[in-house]
Amino acid sequence: MSTTYPLPRQTREITLTATAGQTVFGPVPFILFDAADLAVFVKSAAAQSFTELDPATVTAAPASPATVFPATFTVTLSTARAAGDTVKIKGSRLGSRTTNVTRAGIIQSVPLETELDRQVATEQELRRDVDELQNSIPVDAEGIYADMIVARNAAQTAAGDATTQATNAAASAAAAAESAAAIGAGAGVILFPTAAAAIAASITATRLRIEDEDAQATYVYDPGTSSAATITIANGRKYRNAEKVLTPKMFGAIGDGVADDTAALLALAAEINWRGGSRVEFGDSKTYKVWGTVPANGASLMALSNIKKTRMNFNGSTIAVPINFATNAITLYLMPLTNVEDVHIDHPNFVQTAYNAVDSAKGCQGIYIADASRGIEIHDYTQNGGVSGLSVVRFARNRARDIFMTGDFQNVYYPAVFQRNGDQVDVRYKARGAGRAYFAYNVRQHTAIVDSQQDGPFDDCLLKVYANNTESNAENTLSDIDLRYINVGRATAVNPGGSLIRIAMDQFTATPAPGYIRNIKIVLDVDTGAPGQPAVIATGKTLNNGSSDTVARGHVISNIEISGYINAGAQSTSCMELFTNNGSSTTGDFSGDTVEGITFRNLSQYGATAPFNINAACIDRGLRFENVYVEGAVGLGTLPQKLLDVSDNVTLGAIRSFNEVGTPGIAGYAAYRRLPNGGLEIWGLTTAAASTNTAVAFPVAFTAVPTITCSSTAGGTPSPVNAVSAATSGFSINNPGGSAVVVAWRASGYI
Hints:
The chain has 5 helices and 53 strands. It has a 34-stranded mixed β-sheet that branches. A 5-stranded mixed β-sheet has the order 10-11-12-14-13. A 4-stranded antiparallel β-sheet has the order 1-7-3-4, with no helix packed on it.
């Protein structure tokens, strides 16, 4: 197969600096197929542009050990060069040549492959020359010609000053005329090897180009520019960067992990803001050290605001912060985004190199989104150390939305936190060493996949409403949250004081207000570990001072669904503590608030010593179990005749659905299921007093008297009990025996 011979950025060309009297240059690292396929340009140290040498004064020869072309090669000039002269050697193959690749009518592989290589070289050189031609056209990032740019910026700069306006208009006209004259005369871009060389020059061209690797850029003359990507040369003329793709090196970044690149990244961010958005490519696998000198508290690095259509690729590079926050108690912001739109960030990596304690009070905030930002995608985000990874906060009434993030966080207190802001969010990430892996309050429409180990002493995932009496009911709402929580073993280095997941109603202000939590779906994949661990899921209700709230506030909790797998192992504390008030893992009294639609579906909880507790007295309607198995003890409170909705395949301690083997229920409770014919079947357990009738009230009213059956087994002997006085609202159990017995009853009918 054919082989290509590319060179980075400048395909099939090389630039060399001559020593005094030098005539031979090379070996040149790209392949030459013929001695005539060559162009050589020279420029003295004092010259501003290159001059092509007469081919008759240039000789190319295969580099040793090769003796014939194709091969790498050396170039010999007939005239010796002075010290500091620049020699540019370029491949310049003629595409019109022909080659015979057959012999006796048979295609020969070696000549064919060589010719294919030649064609590839021709294509590479053509691509190179087209790129150079494009770079010689004086356009900016929006494709506006130089004279239009100059006129535009001159007018903008002079908006409030007539004298400045006249001066800049004259300069604009002169620059436009100069540009036209230069193009008409065939003058191209003035080339400089480095930015320093360009700054030291005194030229009057309308455009120049810096050839430094990774910082290559075309600059256009623009006297009125306020761009951060501007160089001012020795004669005072300003040239603005016209590249569509920005790099940190264009602004002076080194990226070696030693030099301080703070100023370069600040300038890069300023240019992105000035343009209203841009494409940014960081260097490959660079380390940009920032804040080598400790800044003021609250300082920002790459603060972007009011930009659109921005693509930023870190290309394996890292922003490293060497500050020891243990002795510098400050908070810094690496990339704040305010009111931005359509921003994509790929592979960002932030590292605190001198402080990785899990700390919520000091350190770096990573990507910090504020106000009405939208359309933000962050792919493969990694961070080690810091107060937060992805933060979405609200300072004004406008809300951010449409945010996507994947990531991996180590020793970050809040890997993802949404504080009254951030709707329509999709996040998927791994957190280790986190203080609180996922924190969302007063937000809507989240899909979150969180892989964590609860390394902090608090609730690992907190879903809550901060009720604020100065805001509307809509603002005091948490809704439509789908959380898939993975925890394959709680961290052994800490003894968590909080649950894995807490659903909470807390007061933000001293004057209480109602809150609304609805449409929450939680899927668990959890191995909880050792005895003494707190609950997997708990609820809470507190005042703004953190104390338990036992007063009805008008809160509404509606439509909560919990499913998945829990291996409680040897855990001896409760796995579920919902709407209880035990003073430790759960707080508050929900009995005066509205709680409805609590569903456990496709849930398995293993661990014989881990209880499952729900204060069913707080649930107004709709406590449902579908395909649920709980190995440990189940506590549902003490409310008699509480309606439970139990489908098939349910085991909740002593509660069994109809198709499960075992005791049919708990005394004082009733369960029901829908029948295929649209009817309802209710069952329960009731203790029937001896030698009398015991009344049983149905938890729902039937439209007609249902079919009722009763049975009881005392000491292994069936007891002769009967249903009497049947009505749509209930019936009585007749027990003719001399001892009280527990009776299992069923009623089938329509409601």
